[in-house]
Amino acid sequence: MRLTELSCEAFTAELAGAAPVPGGGGASALAGAVGIALGGMVASLTLGKKKYAGVEEDMRRLSREAETLRLALLDLVRRDAEGFEPLTRVYRMPNGTEREKAARRALMEDALKAACAPPLDIMRKCCEAIELLKDFAEKGSALAVSDAGVGALLCKAALSGASLNVFVNTAAMADADHAVRVNGEAERMLAEYGALADAVYDEVLRAVRA
């Protein structure tokens, strides 16, 4: 059974276990999927309402884009687990002799890059999701604006969580140039879209407390 086919209870039990996956990366992807699903909820509660007839087409487009992102983030739960497997195997290799150490080093770099790719993609998808949630908050039904705010918070948490899984792998890379490029992209996303998520939350907070 795929990880995303587990019940909430079973998935969180897996997270609490000793197995290396699912871990923080998969949890981040799932949080992002839940966050953008709340955007879909906003669309569902807005579509068909006379008061919001002027944004009907926008809501339909946003709903489609949100659904695409939800499915992509769920798939990244699986991809993150698969991406970490090669690194797990390398860490389990013997490294007592110089020959064993050399064999381990030869495989380590590719394994680190493989483990780094899914969380970087999680971050990219969360950035897209935060942009959509901004639109949901601005254009969606006032009755569901708090859901857009919660979605933005979840996607920010997913963005930040995935970044930790990027940085822990780049820190161990021998290819410094690659690590710098990846870190630079991750840091840019954190700064730009973390701030955007905060702005969405602040605007929603003002709306619900007005």
Protein model, in words:
The protein is an all-alpha fold. The chain has a single domain (21-209), classed as Up-down Bundle (Four Helix Bundle (Hemerythrin (Met), subunit A)). It is built from 6 helices and no strands. The chain has helices at 8-16, 24-46, 56-91, 98-139, 145-170, 176-209. Helix 2 runs antiparallel to helix 5 (145-170) and helix 4 packs parallel to helix 6 (176-209). The mean pLDDT is 95.
Can I get a quick summary?
The protein is mostly helical and 210 residues long. The protein has helices at residues 8-16, 24-46, 56-91, 98-139, 145-170, 176-209. Helix 2 packs antiparallel against helix 5 and helix 3 (56-91) runs antiparallel to helix 4 (98-139).
Order of helices and strands: HHHHHH
User: Regarding CATH, which class?
Assistant: Mainly Alpha
Mind telling me the CATH superfamily name?
A: Formiminotetrahydrofolate cyclodeaminase monomer, up-and-down helical bundle
State mean pLDDT (0 to 100 scale).
95
Gap between N and C termini? 46 Å
What portion of residues belong to β-strands? under 5%
> Over the alpha carbons, how many angstroms does the gyration radius reach?
20 Å
Unreliable spans are none
CATH architecture label name: Up-down Bundle
Number of helices: 6
Shape: elongated
Based on secondary structure, the structural category is mainly alpha
> In this structure, how is the largest beta sheet organized?
none
Q: What is the domain tally?
A: 1
- How many E strands? 0
Helix content: over 70%
What is the CATH T-level topology? Answer: Four Helix Bundle (Hemerythrin (Met), subunit A)
